[in-house]
Amino acid sequence: MSDQQDQPIHCYEPSTLEIIPYEWIQMVIATLYLLTSAASLIGNGIVIIVQTYGTESSNNIRKYLLNLAISDLFIGVLCVPFTYTNIVLGHWIFPNWLCPMGQFVQLWMVFITSFTLTIISFERYIATLHPFSMMNKWFRTHSHPLLALTWIIGAVYAYIPLEHTHTVEFKFHNITFHECRYDNGISLEKKRLYMTSNLIVTFMIPFIMLIFSYVAIVRKLLRRRQQMTTNRKRRTTSYNTVRYNGHIQLRKSLSVNTNRHKTIKMLFTIIVLYCICWMPIKVFQVLLDYSVISYCTVSQFYVLIGTYCACHWLAMANSFVNPIVYSFMSQCFRNDFRRITAQFRLRLRSRLSSIQYYFSGTSTTTVTITIPEIAVTKV
């Protein structure tokens, strides 16, 4: 089958340059993406500060969370604005050099985010199931080279489509506009091959690793829970004889059991949110490139645009979801956050007090002016 026959069926052309002609929908999309960027900036900024100056979180996992926050920050701040302006306005309004640069940064950061999640899941798997193995020791001593390798491989992967990414001129009502495209000068087969590899590399492999690692961790925690339940039943038989010690042990068992429950819930949340955020946009792009999705009527066109906006926003929303899941659900993170904010408030109060003292002291300073006596001669 030739390329002409395989091309996606797009037989509807909108009558306006703006893909979304309704102003209120444009405002909703712009506000939604603006809030996404703000949430990503604030959330990941807090994570970077807490993970840098915190003391309670594990040093090894802190490096991975910091790396994840940096990549999510770049996605939320540098990648989101380019997309929603292109959707709302229907053409590229930024300098031409930002087209390949924005595409490069987006692919780079998506790769780093996906594989940082993968590294975190595998590191947790080794630390939970094989805490005394050489592999666990290797992870603890080689975290910096591993993260650096992730950035290098991600940059090489993002560079592949860079030569085909640039702006293209088009005319609408005899007016020249620019469009940012990443598939200039490549065949349909190569485009489909790249999109399929992108689905496999940035979603399928990380998702399979997440499922494998966290399912194994959950099974291990459930076994420990069963063992603790059995041991607790055994301890209750001697509870009457050693009442005080038994009461303390029982409370410790209940506390550990509760922490295990929270861990299982957090791991399940990680898998579900990762799937919800990234699967729709990856599947949508592949279906669009393989001509499974087409539009020939106005309703089909707007359904396609609405579906794309929803899928893309979910992917971008992962940039502020990760700080919530990995950090704000952690008691260690909350303790560090409270301590850092308390220190900041104390320093701010001290600085304000010193400024107030300075100005109050200046205002109460008395200035003495000596007036010389003038001799007056009576006539």
UniProtKB/TrEMBL annotation:
One of its GO terms (cellular component) is plasma membrane. InterPro entries: GPCR_Rhodpsn, GPCR_Rhodpsn_7TM. It is a multi-pass membrane protein. It is found in: Membrane. Residues 43-326 form the G-protein coupled receptors family 1 profile domain. The keyword Membrane applies. Keywords: G-protein coupled receptor, Membrane, Receptor, Transducer, Transmembrane, Transmembrane helix. One of its GO terms (molecular function) is G protein-coupled receptor activity. It holds the Pfam family 7tm_1. Its main location: membrane. The chain crosses the membrane at residues 24-52, 64-84, 104-122, 143-160, 199-218, 263-281, 301-329. Gene3D superfamilies: Rhodopsin 7-helix transmembrane proteins. Belongs to the G-protein coupled receptor 1 family. This is G-protein coupled receptors family 1 profile domain-containing protein. It comes from Blomia tropicalis (Mite).
